[in-house]
Amino acid sequence: MAEKTEKIKHILVPVHKKISDKEKAELLKKYNITLKELPKILINDSAISDLDAKEGDVIRITRKSHTAGEVAYYRGVTSG
Fold first, then answer.
1. Spatial separation of the C-alpha atoms in residues 75 and 6, rounded to whole Å
2. 28 strand-pairing partners
3. Most distant CA pair in the chain, distance
4. What does each C-alpha distance from 72 to 2, 40, 53 come to in angstroms?
């Protein structure tokens, strides 16, 4: 029997979080962009495997920065 894969927890893997539809709309409006203009993240990426993400969702990736503290990056979920 195959074991369930645990979420990747490693110091080099930044925090990934699926944002709500309201947050997504605010983000796209704030930067005057469309979902297609966001960088992509594949739906089968192991970093988002436990987020129940579907195509069209937006993932916020929070990275630590030595100069800026924490920085948020956004990626649109795609199947390919």
1. 22
2. none
3. 48
4. 35, 15, 18
Per-residue pLDDT, averaged over 30-59, amounts to 95
User: What are the pLDDT digits (tens) for 2-41?
Assistant: 444 445 667 778 999 999 999 999 999 999 999 999 999 9
**CATH number attached to the domain at 15-78:** 3.90.940.20
Domain boundaries, the chain: 15-78
- Residue 41, both tokens: 């993240």
At a CB cut-off of 8 Å and minimum separation 6, what does 57 contact? 18, 19, 24, 76, 77
Closest CA to 24 of 48, 53, 63: 53
In contact, 39 and 2? CB cutoff 8 Å: no
State how far the Cα of 40 lies from the Cα of 43, in Å rounded to an integer: 9
